[in-house]
Amino acid sequence: MPELLDFEPQVFPPSADQPTTLTPIQEEVLALKAERKAVLLAHNYQVAAIQQVADYVGDSLGLAYKAAETNAEVILFCGVHFMAETAKIINPDKPVLLPDLEAGCSLSDSCPADRLAAYKNAHPEVYVVAYINCSAGVKALSDVICTSGNAVRIVERVPADRTILFVPDQNLGQWVAGKTGRPMRLWPGSCYAHVLFTVRALEKVKARFPDAPVVAHPECTETVRELADEVCSTELMVKFAQEHPAERIIVVTESGMIHRLRREVPHKTFIAGPTETCACNDCRFMKLNTIEKVRNALRTMQPEVDVPEPVRRAAYEPIRRMLDWSR
Ligand code: 13P
Ligand code: SF4
């Protein structure tokens, strides 16, 4: 039986993680962005080269608020399809560009709108709380949207006499049910990237860095979440890193997050949460966006995200409710 050797943990020592100069392609992005009067919104999981030229980098909640507040003429959304779609639902009259239209999401795919519609027909009593990681079609069938940053607050606002159906992430739903004490039916979806984190892999890295607290995303499985000192959205991970006295922190989420953390908390060391097969964990959808595709999108004003108007109108209501409820 061949022996599988352990890989070395990925350790990111204190550093601002900022290049002293921008590359020519990054300079071109900044010039095109000004010319097009565009705002560049980037999720925390985007590559460093994109984060460095973004107007705002954040989690799904922060990005939704920025999309709602912007007065830019064009939104260039560096994230995945459902995020750009959300920006379009809020801004029907503005072009919303996504550098790569193939940047989807396994979690969103696990809840097709026609299956949710069939479930609602059979169970008309349910109040649908949809995690923002879903298509416009699913949002249009939902009562309220939430993100990992506000899910607890949103579920607490749902009328107590209603039966909640939480879609599409069973792991986030289970975590929120535990936090709120609110029973709920869970759609059997999950994020392919976050379920790759395992107790065994995490225990190994914890043994190497016993002084380092663990911060994990609620899309992780329950057994992994149980090993964490804090479970929160990507934006709240920045706050956790700033406020926790520890000098080293183990970060159990997609590895783009480490760029953001190093930028915001440059004096600390970050250790990437490992999976069984790799010392870090990239979301293959998030990483489809590259700085070249960002430049090309600004040059050509393509590819653009579109949402049919009846779906957009229906999807807007539960998003607006979320933005109102989480202020
Ligand atoms: P947040 O950044 O909102 O925590 O979401 C993580 C995620 O998986 C987005 O796809
Ligand atoms: Fe979807 Fe998971 Fe990738 Fe987030 S990390 S975009 S939930 S597949």
Give a quick set of tags describing it.
327 residues; alpha/beta; five-stranded mixed beta sheet; four-stranded parallel beta sheet; 15 helices; 41% helix; binds 1,3-dihydroxyacetonephosphate; binds iron/sulfur cluster
Chain-wise SSE layout:
Elements: E1 11-12, H1 24-36, E2 38-43, H2 48-51, E3 56-58, H3 60-69, E4 74-78, H4 81-90, E5 96-97, H5 106-109, H6 113-122, E6 126-131, H7 136-140, E7 144-146, H8 151-157, E8 163-167, H9 170-180, E9 184-186, H10 199-208, E10 214-216, H11 222-226, E11 230-231, H12 234-243, E12 248-252, H13 257-264, E13 269-272, H14 291-300, H15 309-325
Parallel strand pairs: 2-3, 2-4, 4-5, 6-7, 6-8, 8-9, 10-11, 10-12, 12-13
Antiparallel strand pairs: 1-13
Helix pairs in contact: 1-14, 3-4, 4-15, 8-9, 12-13
The chain binds 1,3-dihydroxyacetonephosphate and iron/sulfur cluster (SF4).
